[in-house]
Amino acid sequence: QVQLTESGGGSVQAGGSLRLSCEASGTISKLAGIGWFRQAPGKEREKVAIITDGGRTTYGDSVKGRFTISRDRDNGKISLWMQMNSLKLEDTGIYYCNLWQPNGDYWGQGTQVTVSS
């Protein structure tokens, strides 16, 4: 089993910044990838940014150049961060940490990000 705990969400004005964190613990494979997804009201969940087991990063088109994902592995745990700059109204939503590995797909409980004008 894997446990994911997100933090760092909140309310910010457009143009501002937030930093999200996710702590992954439990039985984590060396082949695990990890990343952030988000879901806005009335919309489907979408990929924001991910890091593969090999360290390759991929970003959604709408956040390229504004968001930066990073990861650290230590003692079997993974710490994941996402720096979000130049936030826009459309970045509002619930942000979920996701970890995938050969034996399963795991989600955190989500953290709310609200961007206002």
SSE string, helices as H and strands as E: EEEEEEEEEEE
Total count of strands = 11
* Proportion of residues in extended strands: over 45%
Query: What would you call the quaternary organization?
Result: single chain
User: What gap, in angstroms, lies between the N and C termini?
Assistant: 40 Å
Broad structural category: mainly beta
User: Helix proportion of residues, in percent?
Assistant: under 10%
Low-confidence stretches: none
Largest sheet: 7 strands, mixed
Mean pLDDT: 96
Overall morphology: globular
Describe the structure.
There is one protein chain. The chain is mainly β. The chain is 0% helix and 60% strand. The protein is built from no helices and eleven strands. The protein has strands spanning 2-7, 10-13, 18-26, 33-39, 46-51, 57-59, 67-74, 77-84, 93-101, 104-107, 111-116. The strands form two sheets. Strands 2, 4, 5, 6, 9, 10 and 11 form a seven-stranded mixed beta sheet that branches. The chain has a four-stranded antiparallel beta sheet with strand order 1-3-8-7, with no helix packed on it. A hairpin with a 5-residue loop joins strand 5 and strand 6 (57-59).
SSE arrangement:
Blueprint: E1 2-7, E2 10-13, E3 18-26, E4 33-39, E5 46-51, E6 57-59, E7 67-74, E8 77-84, E9 93-101, E10 104-107, E11 111-116
Parallel strand pairs: 2-11
Antiparallel strand pairs: 1-3, 3-8, 4-5, 4-9, 5-6, 7-8, 9-10, 9-11
Which characteristics define this entry?
117 residues, mainly beta, 7-stranded mixed sheet, 60% strand
